[in-house]
Amino acid sequence: MTEHAASPRRGDTPAAHAPGPQTTVETMTGAQSLIRSLEAVGADTVFGIPGGAILPAYDPLMDSTKVRHILVRHEQGAGHAATGYAQATGRVGVCMATSGPGATNLVTPIADAYMDSVPIVAITGQVASKAIGTDAFQEADICGITMPITKHNFLVTDAAEIPRVIAEAFHIAATGRPGPVLVDIAKDALQSTTVFRWPVETSLPGYRPVTKPHAKQIREAAKLLVSAKKPVLYVGGGVLKAQASAELRILAELTGAPVVTTLMAIGVFPDSHPQHLGMPGMHGSVPAVTALQKADLLFTLGARFDDRVTGKLDSFAPYAKVVHADIDPAEIGKNRPADVPIVGDAREVLADLIVAVQAEYDAGHRSDYADWWTKLNDWKKTYPLGYEPAPAGELSPQQVIERIGQLVGPEAIYAAGVGQHQMWASQFIAFEKPATWLNSGGAGTMGYAVPAAMGAKAGMPDTPVWAIDGDGCFQMTNQELVTCALNNIPIKVAVINNGSLGMVRQWQTLFYNQRYSNTVLHAGPDHDGKEPPAQGTRIPDFVLLSEAMGCVGLRCERPEDLDAVIKQAMEINDRPVVIDFIVHQDAMVWPMVAAGTSNDEILAARDVRPDFGDDLD
């Protein structure tokens, strides 16, 4: 197959850009062919659980010296672990499950990876080919089920097809806009004898991702950028996926334009950089949200104008022209028309833009952003991120997360669950490097953090990995701590324990007259949710639960103990550590744009509407 050449980058696979090992022809089973193919494409870690239909593959897997299998406790954990592995390493993550319920348990992490453009290959066993469609035991049409949430999927009923399909699956997952690919293999295809040939010839005539942008569009974009008075570089996860952080910084410093990074792009541009305004969106910083609203040019790179960023779409950035660069042409114009559309890989786009902008400067075309920066700096000074202190003697969740970031540092990898703790982690941990922030952005999957941290640590064993989790999220997938303990994957888990489903409780506080229906986690149905139950009624006890799963369990309840407990956890590296941080339950995430409202209605804190001092408010 042919596609525009691109320089190698993280995420490339042998199947994508280079031949595999020297051509070999051997007779073996389809199962042996599958494991040999995984070795050939460079897969070194598989997260999975055996079962009847996939069992033939597990026998030759036992003999592989190149592929490590990690036996998880739930298939959802396998899928999120593959995602965490891929996000941390830039390589394709791999998970494996059996047919029926094994395969359907992968649906949530597959959907999660699809929404966040993460390259994973999910391999599932299927009932024997003659039984497909008969409602056989543990049969599920996993290809049909996942068709809307995979980049592509395959049903393999012929053992001879396995090497080609695996090569194509890894190529599709890693190139263009990354995403999940499913390979469903019938049991008889795994059991039958075949001739293994590698390298394989792939044939994907309809799949030719455009990586090199059109020169005319680059020139038009550069002209808009150098003539704008109030531009914003609106940076999404596509820049991070393209490993284009260096090129982004060059363009930003060349132009002097402000930068906002979406939830999925955190770390691609240093939080400490003076041109960084923070994260836009529902819980973004006031300067970032407002800059987009007041801008005359949105220079959009690898972002998709999702509803959490735009708020009420028809009121989003009403005065701005739009340059929209994305490797997926389907995203351009989907939510907001683009004045200059650019299809291409973010690193290629940025590299060409740097040249084009410099050419405009050399020709004497340059705008002055001084007045724009005066306003931006005033907003940064007036509306910084902050939080109210906790009641005397209690821990503030923001303080806990901020202190973890300060003590652990920017070299670590942080994986967050979904909810208040996710937003606080994005706000109060300083991210200076790409691939250090892992979270479920598009799907918002509770239970993501622990298995994703496990996958990240498996792929980056020498890097500290912390899961910032809520007590609600933690109770969905904490069984994977057993996997971590038994496989020498010493992650740290900070459970931000407010005794409730915090983000839902926040909405109940703001929009449902403080009627806390079914959001209190450690009390029975008689509890009205208005006061925390007695400390002795905590169910479960996370310290005891963690110790039962082979981890070190710690608890922190007082502000004066915070540093000592975090440092104690940092010093333990022979097994996982779980810290139960007991925090007060009424903390809220601010700033906030209420769902369905305009970003102009952002609240810096409860009942605090920013005044920008202009006639556009």
UniProtKB/TrEMBL annotation:
EC top class, as a word: transferase
Domain Thiamine pyrophosphate enzyme TPP-binding: 417-581
A Pfam family of this chain: TPP_enzyme_M
Manner of cofactor binding, per the entry note: Binds 1 Mg(2+) ion per subunit.
Record's protein name: Acetolactate synthase
Membership in a protein family: Belongs to the TPP enzyme family.
Reactions the enzyme catalyzes: 2 pyruvate + H(+) = (2S)-2-acetolactate + CO2
CDD domains: TPP_AHAS, TPP_PYR_POX_like
EC number: 2.2.1.6
Magnesium in keyword set: yes
UniProt cofactor(s): Mg(2+); thiamine diphosphate
Occurrences of domain Thiamine pyrophosphate enzyme N-terminal TPP-binding (ranges): 28-143
Domain of life: Bacteria
Pathway info: Amino-acid biosynthesis; L-valine biosynthesis; L-valine from pyruvate: step 1/4; Amino-acid biosynthesis; L-isoleucine biosynthesis; L-isoleucine from 2-oxobutanoate: step 1/4
Region (Disordered): 1-24
Keywords: Amino-acid biosynthesis, Branched-chain amino acid biosynthesis, Magnesium, Metal-binding, Thiamine pyrophosphate, Transferase
InterPro entries xrefs: Acetolactate_synth_lsu, AHAS_TPP, DHS-like_NAD/FAD-binding_dom, THDP-binding, Thiamin_PyroP_enz_cen_dom, Thiamin_PyroP_enz_TPP-bd_dom, TPP-bd_CS, TPP_enz
Gene3D superfamilies hit by this protein: 3.40.50.970, TPP-binding domain
Domain Thiamine pyrophosphate enzyme central: 218-353
